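I have been asked to look over a protein record a colleague put together. Alongside the sequence sits a line of tokens, each denoting a local backbone shape. I have pasted the whole thing underneath without changing anything:
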Amino acid sequence: MPPPKDVVKIAIQMVGAIPQLIELQQTKPLASVLKDVCDAWSLPNAERYALQYVDGRQTYITESNRGEIKNGSILRLTTSPDQEAERLYSGIQSNNSDVKTDSLKKLASLSQDVTFAQEFISRNGLKQIFHIVEEGNDTGEMLAHTLKAFMELMEHDFVSWETLSAAFIKKIVSYVNMNAVDASVQQLSLSILENMVPTSRLLFELVKKEVTLDRLLTHLQVTNAQLQLKAMALLIALLLAATDAERRDMMEYLREKNIRQFIHKNIIHSSEPLGDEMAHYLYVLQSVSLNLCERRMRTSMDPYSQEQRELLQSLRQTAFEPESETPASNFSTERRRSLCAKEFRKLGFMNNSNPAEDLRRAPPGLLALDNMVYFSRHTPSAYSRFVLENSSREDKHECPFARSSIQLTLILCEILHIGEPCSETAQAFYPMFFGQDHFFEELFCVCIQLVNKTWKEMRATQEDFDKVLQVVREQITRTLFLKPTSLELFKTRVNALNYSEILKLRQTERLHQEETLAVPVLELRERLKPELLQLIQQQRLLHLCEGTLFRKISSRRRQDKLWYCRLSPNHKVLHYGDVEEGVHSPPIESLPEKIPVADMKMLLVGKECLHVKEKSSGKQNKDILELAFSVVYDVEEYCLNFIAPTRYEFCLWTDGLNVLLGKEMTSERTQTDLDVLLSMELKLRLLDLENISIPDTPPPLPKPPSNLNFCYDFSHTEQ
């Protein structure tokens, strides 16, 4: 029978005594439990004792936390928190340095417990700790224990950080600024200052004034990883507590001191693995730095601002004026305005007569303009190539630079979470951020060229704009996920991830999501293929039996006559003949010409067809090549020539003719239809296995039992 829920079985230890195994009744007052335990060991004054966990943080047991005691817990009978607090309060005032050091060491350990901390603070213990720090000149082990005890006591929030005296704070600051100080003392001092900074504006200003950024940078350059970590923690605390203007000035100063390069070389690429805490601080530093772009991102363009108008005009001048022999200033006002509007249209602005309107949307606001200007000034050849290359394309195929830049800036802001508050737990920083000055602008320069490359790969038109930018977003996020260590490596990887690769990855992920890449599913897929291919063949032959209306193409490429072709219901004869305009499905008897399927020799497609081999160039000829096919028949090898009305009809007819010739269907439509049918069939067959993982290998068959002998033994002759 299980014990009642309010009873737990525990062991209680005491130095020099045999442990007790008791059943602790949670409804019984703790004072009564202690009296019973003390009576069992013949100890008087039970009120001077308390129970404490043996393992972990060695927390004291109180009425408020006794419910956390589990079956099998091991507790220790020890001095009560008030008695221990009184003893240590006296011990830290001792003139004997050994007693004082031991008391401070024990104090640092016990101060983690909230019950003890409350007792010690109620005796004005913090005042004594302040005295040790303010008056003492020791910088060794005793001071380290003192600072550790202070940190633990302050963690419980019984006392406000704002109550600290100026003398105490200056002493802590001096430990950070001194060189010949024990590393553990400096670590604890940095931690104390880090905790002080967020509590009040006054403390922030005091610490910012006394502990310079140069001093923090010095601590970041030491080989001691813990000291490095605490210095980074204080730097982050200062940045987060600063105003926007102060933060901007601090980040500018750190940039001048090349903190990014130092972090990239000595922290990210150090021989020691990067801890979670340091990873979080690097994420915050990256986030704070990128959020400096927020002000420009949320500011719309002011059409009356001379500075902003000059930046806008510089884009046009950099792209077009060098190639113009006559400066625009020589033209009349109307002519100059018309020329500028034309050039802004070539730059890809939607509102070419007033391009400032395109930048009124915030975000991305002026940040998009800054990126475009940076690209034009720092990579002028790439900028000119982008603009001029698209200016010379057909209107519908040109990639609009300005529109793409504005949307790309918005995408980068979303990916990099610009304008969003820092997460308290995130660790997702990008190593290449710390290896590159002007990271956001340089990243934009790489990505805007990627937009142009992807646009060409997709053969996009203006209607495909959103689709192209969606692919670009995917290219960027997938590459950033790989955490490239430098911008050059990012550039190499993102350019290698072209449009066709994105399509392959999407397909693979979709198949994985549907569990269609599991080995048993792949085997089932292969078994289903022949049956489904046969189904596709039947559909193709049925389509040929229904027939299709074709146009005859003359030598001048004029589509002037119509003819109809269809397969007989028994699949043995092709019937064809001329028809009048408006006739869609003539009866088979009205088609005079015939070709027995048995006489068909081969199928020719595209450039192999004689009727499209004439020397000609141009888009129309290319389109006809993609739709042309011929049937070679009879001993004399005559040809029946076709120009399919659509690519869909081309696929169905070439597949159907290949089936009649006993060959494989080779059109892209066959693969598409097969994939659709396989997907549907697999989903139906796996319907009952939803949310059940399918193993790659079948489970092993158990060995047959030793008594498996169902066969009658005829060797024994019946008596």
The chain has a mean pLDDT of 87. The longest helix spans residues 519-546.
